Amino acid sequence: MTDRIPFTKMHGAGNDYIYVNAMLHPIADPVRASILWSNRHKGIGSDGLVLIDRSFIPEADFSMRIFNADGSEAMMCGNASRCIGKYLYDRGLTEKTEIRLQTRSGVKILKLTVANGLVEQVTVDMGEPILENASQFVPVDGLEKGVFVSMGNPHYVIFTNDVNQVETKGSELEYHPAFPQRCNIEFACVESDGRIRTRVWERGSGITQACGTGACATAVAAALSDRVGRKSQIVMDGGELSIEWLESDNHVYMTGPAEFVFDGEIAIL
């Protein structure tokens, strides 16, 4: 009989990943697993694979590794980190409502909002945005100049009345020579009520329902360009995230939902 490994499908604002408790079930080849399992026709279907593990440093409680649908390893994912907070608490792996999570872009603090014993939403301290190249210009025919913001991973945010351009321009921008490590791309529009409608092309995954670091980058870019203040609501295809860029510590805080979809088992590669 083929050995099988348990997994949990979760999503944060529609950004869906496969979660594996690597403390109990280590994955020998996560790159190959992510490519095969993320396939929406022949696999489980997801934006990628997330491994939840013990921390390897004293400053954190747990760690995460995240692999995109194409197998590339990401530095950080805000939506996945919120889901990890819910997974750890709701599944009884921790009693803490403030969790220190080790990621490739540093330790992130997760603050859990709990009601009736279950996590309802999570606020993530995403750290300080890196703005050294904020005015970087990427020449692409027909597109306005964007704003470059790093949230531990690179984002290029373009404000436009047509956010659906992401469907035709996202791939071109991800692989633009200006981004030798490739880049996440956001097309955003500030609506009449002040909310920011955003669509995302994620490096390594293509169009996704939401992107936590992308929402943060969009909020920072909108504040830098005086389109909104330091608090904003980012409306993505899969849901809405609340972002606040505090002046007191220059950190960006993201608040949003995390949801279980289903549990299952899949053959070990």
Q: TL;DR of this structure?
A:
With 269 residues, this protein is an alpha+beta fold.
Structure description:
The protein has a 17-stranded mixed β-sheet that branches. The chain has 269 residues and is of the alpha+beta class. The mean pLDDT is 95.
Task: Give the topology, please.
Elements (H helix, E strand, L loop, with lengths): L3 E9 L2 E7 L8 H9 L9 E7 L7 E7 L4 E2 L3 H13 L7 E6 L2 E10 L2 E8 L21 E4 L3 E6 L6 H9 L9 E7 L5 E7 L3 E3 L3 H13 L6 E6 L2 E7 L6 E5 L2 E9 L2
Notable features of this structure?
269 residues, single chain, 17-stranded mixed sheet, alpha+beta
> What general outline do the C-alpha atoms trace?
globular
Topology order in helix (H) and strand (E) letters: EEHEEEHEEEEEHEEEHEEEE
| Structure summary, number of beta strands | 17
Please compute the radius of gyration using only Cα atoms.
Answer: 18 Å
- Give the proportion of residues in helices: 10-25%
Structural category is alpha+beta
Mean pLDDT, to the nearest integer, reads 95
> How many helical elements?
4
Q: How does the major sheet shape up?
A: 17 strands, mixed
Query: Which regions are unreliable across 5 or more consecutive residues at pLDDT < 50?
Result: none
**Beta-strand residue fraction:** 35-45%
**Termini Cα gap:** 13 Å
